[in-house]
Write a structure and sequence with these properties.
By secondary structure, the protein is an alpha+beta fold. It is 34% helix and 20% strand.
Length: 163
């Protein structure tokens, strides 16, 4: 397995994996996590722009023989954000490994590569969000040196129409 920067030809598969990630989150809390079809097509359009953006990074994991992409990571450089009380930082937005390739080091390789790339891009720290109902992810990220710093809370307001 090798990790490399994504190319535009990778986006159909990366977008398919991103759609699986969205569905996973939506299944955890349908009221909180957006599910707008066609998910993969929306991600393909979004990631097409992100490939060109200097402050964005999309990595893929594939078999050494150039086989199918089994996972991806999407990270960005973010400026100081007074609202979040967060100085400039890297942000690991997505990391996802196909179910058939899990428990083989793919996620760890993607995460380490993303952290290395963000450091090379000048990020002094990296933040991420993970679903609170995903304790395996919490353990995984903590094993990479992340610590818990915030807890997002959501309240549905009665009578508010869904968008």
């Amino acid at each position: 397995m090798r990790v490399r920067r994504a190319q535009s030809s990778d986006l159909p598969r990366v977008s398919q994996l991103a759609a699986e990630l969205v569905r996973q989150h939506h299944a955890l809390d349908a009221a909180r996590f957006l599910l707008v079809e066609p998910i993969a097509e929306g991600y393909r359009r979004f990631f097409t722009g992100e490939l060109r953006r200097k402050a964005a990074l999309i990595l893929v994991a594939e078999a050494d023989d150039g086989g199918e992409i089994t996972g991806y990571a999407y990270a960005t450089l973010e400026p100081r954000n007074w609202n979040d009380l967060l100085d400039a930082a890297g942000k690991l937005n997505d990391i996802y490994v196909d179910a058939s390739a899990r428990r083989r080091g793919v996620g760890r390789a993607l995460a380490r590569a993303a952290l290395d790339e963000l450091a090379a891009m000048g990020a002094p720290r990296v933040v991420l969000m993970t679903a609170w109902r995903n304790p395996d992810a919490h353990v995984f990220f903590e094993s990479l040196g992340f610590r818990r710093t915030m807890l997002e809370m959501t309240a549905e307001l009665a009578g508010t129409p869904a968008r």
